[in-house]
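Justification of computing resources. Each target in the renewal requires a structure prediction run like the one illustrated here; the chain below, 704 residues long, is used simply to show the kind of job we budget for.
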Amino acid sequence: MNSIHLIFGCHSHQPVGNFDHVFADAYRKAYLPFLDVLERYPAVRVVLHYTGPLWDWFLENEPGFVQRLGAMVEDGQVEIMGGAYYEPLLCAVPERDAVKQIARMTAFCEEHFGRAPRGMWLAERVWEPHMPRILAAGGIEYTVVDDMHFKCTGLRPEQLFGYYVTEEAGAPLKVFPILEKLRYLIPFRQVEKTIAFLREHASEDGRRCAVIHDDGEKFGVWPMTYESVYGEGWLEEFFQALTENKDWIHCTTYGDYLDRVPPLGRTYIPTASYQEMMAWSLPTPMQRQLHDLRNQYKEDAEHLLFLRGGFWRNFLAKYPEANAMHKRMLRVSDRLVRLQKGRRKNEKELAEAECLLHQAQCNCAYWHGVFGGLYLNHLRTAVYERLIAADGLLDACGHAKEGWTATEVADWNRDGWDDIILENDRVALFLSPNDGGTLTELDFKPKPFNFLNTLARREEAYHDALLTGQPTLASDTATRGSIHELVRVKELGLDKFLVFDSYPRSSLRDHFFAPDVTTGQLWGMAYRELGDFATGRYQYSVKGRRATLWRAGTAAGAAAKVSKSIKLQKGASGFRIQYDIASDGSRVLEALFGVEFVINLLTGGAADRYYESEDRDLGRAMLGCMGCDEELRHIALRDDWQGLRCALRFSAPARVHRFAVETVSQSEGGQERVYQGSVLIPCWALPRGVSAASLTIDVEIAHV
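Resulting structure tokens:
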């Protein structure tokens, strides 16, 4: 009788910073019921991988779950796969951190399961050719990636029922291919289709191995899967079918298969990930072109093989906000290494800072696709929170006393231009002379928080479905299918919010507007920029605790110069901006001068997040509302939930436009609106007949 080995694996993950109720819901809908069903079928052997955020949550909230897993590991029914603990992309973190994260997971498995894992899961199956060297340094014997990775080497589908050996600089690694066919069959199609596929590929010698290893959330968390997998019994039926056919379908684990069957050969895998990821990483116009080409050749697998898309690092070019987080993380990592060298004091603080750094390396907030969490502001907030907290610990190790200040001029975000950092023991300001002299990050250290954690509205390829198709409400349970096949929305009318920004949403961006500009025009990017300052390059100087940036350009058809000086005081949580605006005196500037601020307090629709002013009652207007207030000298954004407040105080009364930036983004549950920050643009009419004007803006941040 022909037979075949089957390795059935699940990778389960929740991002650092995800809401506790999301962890709990995933546990209730997927992780727990999966184990309940598996325990009833001892003949079914599986490989399970859980990431560090889940292990942390299990130990704190459901320790019995870890104990149950331990018993199944002891019985040989489950193999626990390792990984980098907080699920970083190994290509996106320094190798020293990658190896330490792998060691962190290995130590956990040894403590709770009595053995070190032989293999590890690669986050998002993102592969680069240097991976074998990193994994070997971490003591890892094998990993698993998509069959597409192998097809890109020239291997054909019939050659992918086993594993291959690869290496980098002599460091060996064994690599298994995940079969795409099984990835789309399980658990979305009838069980018999999977059994038929396995029967078709069984062999007389029984050495072949089919691998399916995919998200554990497919079994209960993905839309409509809880009902199909458990309510209708798909998983029970599948495990029953494997049990009934165990004479020719041999459920095994990676470790057992490696010990019994030799490799199929040697191969060298190029840079790759799963097909969807490689498409998502492309610029939007190229995504559309790739989509059209794939549709053109959808019946021709030979041609489709060569339509691969981009690779993960493209996200750092596509989304400057992702690059800023990434380079901010590298800055903390480099600083930690410098302080660790030869230091015997502060070992506890440095170890805590390293753990926070590792948590901030969790991959989800750094990219965007159906699963990537860049658009989710709470995940970005979690990254910044941990980086700022780590910096606070490093501050205590690196500065002998309180009340210090520091300045730095360096290309920290690696865009080819120097940036300016002003910092004391309470706040850190990151300024970009090359992009309008803007303030790109404002860190509050007493409660680690980046007030400028914003995201610009930009065109995405999936927006096309809102304009050309008939989206289905996510609440409609009548339609079923893979999340890659459905066009679902969480509310109708999202096409009205497809407004795209022409620049990153940073603060201290300088504008010249027509005197009659409206808030709606500013929100809709339907106004005319009368100057060349908003995105222009500023010159700069840094002296002591002050950075001065200036630009000579044009405004309303006249030569003009804008200078702004930012001063940070010792021990202060706020700072002052002194503006000087001058023209050549030959004509009056018929324009409003506006300074854009963007503050993100995580939601615009909660009653405990609102505007307030010392000048008049604003009615606790929520941060998501649109409005325009005249003659204000003071306006603040207040967050009673987090206990934070950011206030702006002007030396001259201003007309203040305010509105929310909301993106339309894709998620597992469908397209949705996500709040990315509140924009405030105080504007001043420049005095008629006067060629120069000055004003000050005080920014105050504090606990409520």
